[in-house]
Amino acid sequence: MKPCRLLGFQAGVIVYSTEYTFHHCYQITTRYNIQTGMTACYPSSGGIWLADLGPVELPFLEIHRFDSTERSWSEAEEDQFRRELRKFGSGRNISEIEPVFSIDRKVAFPAEGGVWVLGRNEETGRYPCGIVGVYNELKMEKRSMGLERLGAFYRQDLAKSPPLDDLKKEPRDLAGNQDL
């Protein structure tokens, strides 16, 4: 395996470079890496879930946003974290350099419960104009209002939310014919 360097997300796709040596690439153990801005999860089912989260999502998931943090070595805690991370959309990788699929959406959880969900336009592959304003919000309640203004779907019950149907599926079901 070539050494690699995680460069980040571009348009919902994880971008890597093999031109640089990054000695920690083989054994990623961080929950959140301040240098790459990536949040990772290592569930008992194998593989790695990666997401590019912002200043609202990180505290919501109880991640300190100004320091790199280590993952939990408890399988149960990692599996629970995966369930929470997937709500925000994330990519499932076989290894740190082999992406299998990626789910890209913006979500917000208002104080009164439920969830606001905004996906990309199916024709253009883009979020609506004004999405940067949502990225700039520092409070979950304000992010909820921003997503509502952009036409997000609201569901009181996450289990009955078609935009979140992928949460009911296992990685092998989401990957289709690809090997996991």
Describe, in plain words, how this protein is organized in 3D.
With 180 residues, the chain is an alpha+beta fold. It folds into two domains: 5-103, no CATH class; 107-155, no CATH class. It has helices spanning 57-60, 75-87, 131-136, 140-149, 171-174, and strands spanning 5-10, 13-17, 30-33, 38-41, 48-52, 69-70, 91-93, 99-102, 105-108, 115-119, 153-155. The chain is built from five helices and eleven strands; from the N terminus they run E-E-E-E-E-H-E-H-E-E-E-E-H-H-E-H. Strands 6-3-4-5-7-8 form a six-stranded antiparallel β-sheet, covered by helices on one side. The radius of gyration is 16 Å and the shape is globular. The protein is 21% helix and 25% strand.
Write a brief caption for the model.
By secondary structure, the protein is α+β, with helices and mostly antiparallel strands.
Task: Provide the descriptors you would attach to this structure in a database record.
single chain; 180 residues; alpha+beta; six-stranded antiparallel sheet; 5 helices
Whole-number mean pLDDT: 79
Report on the biggest sheet: 6 strands, antiparallel
Order of helices and strands: EEEEEHEHEEEEHHEH
Biggest sheet, spatial arrangement of strands: 6-3-4-5-7-8
Number of domains: 2
Shape call: globular
> How much of the polypeptide forms β-strand, as a percent range?
25-35%
Radius of gyration: 16 Å
Segments where pLDDT lies below 50 for 5+ residues? 1-27
Number of helices: 5
End-to-end distance, in Å?
Answer: 18 Å
Biased composition (Basic and acidic residues): 163-173
Region (Disordered): 161-180
